[in-house]
Amino acid sequence: MADVKLTHVKKIYSNKVEVLKDINLDIKQGEFIVFVGPSGCGKSTLLRMISGLEEITSGTLEIDGQVVNDVPPALRGIAMVFQSYALYPHMSVYDNMAFSLQIAKLSKEDIDQQVRKAADLLQLTPYLDRLPKALSGGQRQRVAIGRAIVRRPKVFLFDEPLSNLDAALRVATRMEIANLKESMPDSTMIYVTHDQVEAMTLADRIVLLSGGDVEQVGPPLDLYEHP
Ligand code: ADP
Ligand code: ADP
């Protein structure tokens, strides 16, 4: 539920390589934005800077009109889903999704309501008592998404969430993410992939990164029909 604005954002790692030169982007609340571009062009770097996991060398990042360059990740209202699921192996699906809410000291009733709502949305209700090792890769990735949803983030970040899945699960999980977009129309979603089909099916707008800059930005058909 937030606008995300990047102004003259630059990233230079400690080895002095300028990975991102001058990124300017205005992402509106509720938009589904997909970053595409060749491997190594800085997609993950950009996502990690938005999340706060990576420092911005210069330029500003605003969320809802507030400059958040120095705001710690946990206070940005952002949830991130990575390509590896990073679930807690000794906790059930339910507990994996409930954990951050327990830390935030929500009441048992509120936690239960949030977890069951997310499970329902992601078709995980039959698996709530299972441990992650008893799930398929696609189910695990849905749990990881569920863990993000229950915190009701303003912004969702996805870093190649389907790339560890086999082809069939990739399609099914992609459809879950499309459902997520439909059922959470106010949430801003920023998604990194190198898969053109994912970009085409999910994006409101695609951002093509190349050579450290935004090369093109627009709706999928504009990008892929007039390359
Ligand atoms: P992409 O996600 O588009 O594949 P990345 O953002 O992962 O690109 O990486 C962009 C470039 O920055 C690559 O050349 C990569 O090697 C380099 N890079 C990424 N992380 C670091 C780091 N922590 N230190 C130095 N260079 C890095
Ligand atoms: P991705 O699959 O997102 O492109 P990579 O496999 O390139 O990610 O990088 C994995 C991790 O290694 C990241 O945390 C990134 O910051 C780090 N990394 C990537 N390239 C470099 C580099 N040249 N020097 C130092 N760390 C790097």
TrEMBL record:
<keyword id="KW-0067">ATP-binding</keyword>
<protein>
    <submittedName>
        <fullName>Sn-glycerol-3-phosphate ABC transporter ATP-binding protein UgpC</fullName>
    </submittedName>
</protein>
<keyword id="KW-0762">Sugar transport</keyword>
<keyword id="KW-0813">Transport</keyword>
<feature type="domain" description="ABC transporter">
    <location>
        <begin position="4"/>
        <end position="227"/>
    </location>
</feature>
<keyword id="KW-0547">Nucleotide-binding</keyword>
<dbReference type="GO" id="GO:0005524">
    <property type="term" value="F:ATP binding"/>
</dbReference>
